[in-house]
Structures
1.
Amino acid sequence: MEKIIEEINAKTDLAKITITSMPNVPGAASELFSLLGEAGFNIETISQFSCAKNFCDISFTIREKETDEVVEYLRSNVIFSDKELKSSIRASDILIDKNIALITILGKRIATTPGFAGKIFSTVAKLGVNIETISASLMMITFLVPKHRADEIVNTIKQEVE
């Protein structure tokens, strides 16, 4: 029988940037990520959450070594300056977390295996680790965890779930 998990890895050279209280209007995410792309920044993952009263928090991961450059770009060109901007985006704050790892689980059978995501998340919970963000598709589950726990999580999932 074919394994559910074909590949699992941890990427620890990332940082998570969260932009808080960004307007939740059509085109805001498009504008933000288009500007970051035009500036040469490659975004690894994106999560939008905490939508209330027309505002949302949006997080994305980038290479950790680009953190200062991305934050400076955002502060001076996109959302926190009163001068004429390249963008109409406004937000409350930028939060930075350099203590993250992106766990990625790939497998063709993920979507057709009932309870698989629950089993993965239960395994992580048994280690006492809180998952920060989750993204899933038909063949992939990704989630952010504290960097110093990444190897332990990957090894435990390999032992208990594969």
2.
Amino acid sequence: MPTRHDLAHREALIHGRSFVIVWAHADGSPAISVESARQVAVERDPLSLEVTAAVKRWVASGRAHAVVYRSDGITSFVSEASVPEGGTIPPDGWSVTARTPNPLGRVPVVAFVNRRRLLGTEGQSEFADIAGLTDAINKTCADALTSSERYARPQRWLAGLTIEYETDPVTGAKTPVKPFDFTEADRLWQVEDPEARFGQFDAARLDGYVAEVNMFTRQIAALSALPPHLIGLHGDQPMSADGIRSAETGLVAKCLDRQRTFGESWAEVAQLVVAVALGGFPESIEPLWSDPASRTPAQAADAASKMVSSGLLPPETALQEYLDYGPEQLAAVRAARRRAVLDGAAADLSAFLRAPTEPEEGAA
């Protein structure tokens, strides 16, 4: 999971939802897998919205496979008909290959839903609002490339020159003869007719396409809460640190919202892992998230130091809230402080034992 947990977030942001399945290896240790919404679907209780059943389907070795997860057991299926790689999974014609009891008593499939709503339990992709705008940008860029190919080069004109024609000996059709070879731009164009006049039309300007792309990009930034400097706007004007933090306010708020919704799912995953490993569900689990705001280590350390020196927070809480220290790091800090105190006490004791003692008055 340290290397694959981000896949659950990415799949949920792209497809609107992703899934994590928790089960056990052959040796009884917990097994965690991140699943895509293209292969997994869940059924929810209409009252509590809890997952009551789940299914995973995939194609491998020329057959379609499926696993149905329920609170009382897990059933594996295989298709009777062969299915090529990338083919359509058949709706019927399945055979049961295995039945396994579920000692957890809960469906071991956890859903990560992005942009969850009361009646929208399937979530929504982050690209849903901006898909049309990105298509508009692609179309505008295609128009700009077409214009640059056809009309960006200046078109020349010639007036006052008598047009000569060639006659086809078979059909008798007359075809005008081009006085110049337009494919050779380095040739000198010259005519003997003193009445001939040369000129050229203005080349097509592409500024309108650039302005249109910038307009669509600004709309994308407004809908997605992306700061301008992350999507190429105002690239010629470096922003200050305060300006960057102010521009990222909407994006940080969106990240905090995802942390709340995804945090519930990760807590459920952790409960299933503990149940598989120890045989019982813990009372409560709270995920710890890093601060999504842009802040330098010096700023975070200064804020933590001020909170501790003013007595508002103890050192461990300040390390956790401002420097994103986790339980393992906090335990390492406590152990290091304990060693430092013991080393200091041992040094003082050694110095005391090595100190010469003066003989008492009158002693032999």
3.
Amino acid sequence: MRRTSQEIADEVLCRIRLLEKEDARRAARNKKRVYSVIAVAACLVLIVGLSFAIPSIVMDSTAVEVEGMYTAAMLADAAAGSYILIGVIGFAAGSAVTIFCLKGLHQKATEEQPHDRND
């Protein structure tokens, strides 16, 4: 059976639209990956920066002698609060990144499933 030129042109246009949709999906996925990498990098920079900055700020603001302290006595120091703060911020940032990654994986899995299950 031969196709008419109009049928061939319609098929070509349909294929072009399908390819354009796929390109748009691929671009959106790449954009999401870039945002994810930036979010992870920002969290790491935040945690590392705070871990260096907060203890020195707290130690400068409190006149505490560090030389005579032992390991267990460090928890009684005012700087221990800064380490706890760093831990809480690190946990929150890690939890947020994990949630975003799991959400992205779930969304990717639902996109890859076939849309028409009647085949």
